[in-house]
Amino acid sequence: METLDRTERVETAIIGGGQAGLATAYYLKERGRPFVVLDAGDQVGDAWRTRWESLRLFTPARFDSLPGFPFPGSNWSFPTKDEMADYLEAYVERFDLPVRTGVKVKRLEKQGGRFVITSSRGRFEAVNVVVATGACQNPKVPGFADQLRPDITQLHSKDYLSPSQLSPGDVLVVGVGNSGAEISMELAATRHTLLAGKESGHIPVRHGSLISRPGFRVFRFMGHRVLTRGNPIGRKLAPKLFGHGDPLIRVRPKDLAAAGIERVPRVAGVQDGLPLLEGGRVLDVANVIWCTGFRSDFGWIDLPILGNDGEPVHDRGVVGSEPGLYFIGLAFQYSLSSDVLPGMSRDHDFVANHLASRVPSMSEASGELDPVA
Predict the structure, then answer these.
(1) Among 96, 99, 154, which Cα is nearest to 288's?
(2) Fewer Cβ atoms within 10 A, N terminus or C terminus of the chain?
(3) Residue 174 and residue 298: Cα distance in Å, rounded?
(4) Secondary-structure percent of the chain, ordered helix, strand, coil, rounded to 5
(5) From CA 175, how far away is CA 154, in angstroms rounded?
(6) Contacts (Cβ under 8 Å, ≥6 apart) of 151
(7) Is-above-0.90 flag for pTM?
(8) How would DSSP label each residue in 253-267?
């Protein structure tokens, strides 16, 4: 039986084995630095495998690659979520990355000059820690959700897998982002579906078409090179962009109408246990799916590195107040593309370079480190 109270010492611990953590691992291995990747999933890629069954990526395969290993398949195909999960698993095998699965990190603190990680599989001490848990961690639902009648089936998009999870009857999908639009299209084939909210625009051409390809390259260039923290334009536009929902990419408003989806105003609250819309209409539905996004959660980090907004205070992922602590995969970490596949490599390379060039202090380096590489 595994001893859960043991302490393992490592030079660098990467918390999170998704695309952000694995790309960072690649760059650290390339620089010859020892590390271990700690991932909560039972299998590499589980963060993708557990998403809804029909999910496909919005970015073409040619832009979904991690460093050193092209994504297999047609360049302009859109991989399924399982294909992405399988790719991440193959990535770990190809580069022999030391990933520990089934390790749920509960706490990160600092003791005696070293970072201390408490997890479901024991305790780790590290000179450096890279937090790669991503920008989308905890499902966000309105505070009045628990006032809905108990016989109404409620799911967040994170937990939605397929229509078979729902009760017989109508379904209200809340949130007209890409998740809400795509899930609504799937549900409309088998039941009356209502979609609440207002979309934030949509791309002008059919996603994946030949005419869309130049536009995708332009959008990628803008998000990666222009809308950055190092550019006055990016610094000015960032607050506005994050206060505005993403445009619909694959599904357009006319597709929703053609599928028979009923568009309704935003949900304002609950009346008699049922969803109440702006304007006073009450919906008698059997199911509600909250496609209302995510909020980051860094409450498990017991270090004074969070700002008033609960987000890490950092410079391009480097936490100046806690030498040796890094973040990767945050929204607008450096550019608009920082938390999506086509824009990650630059951030990973920057963090890995900073980490590899760092000379640990005597107090940090004291004691023997376990040889994980």
Answers:
(1) 154
(2) N
(3) 26
(4) 30, 25, 50
(5) 14
(6) 167, 286
(7) no
(8) HHHHHHTTPEEE--E
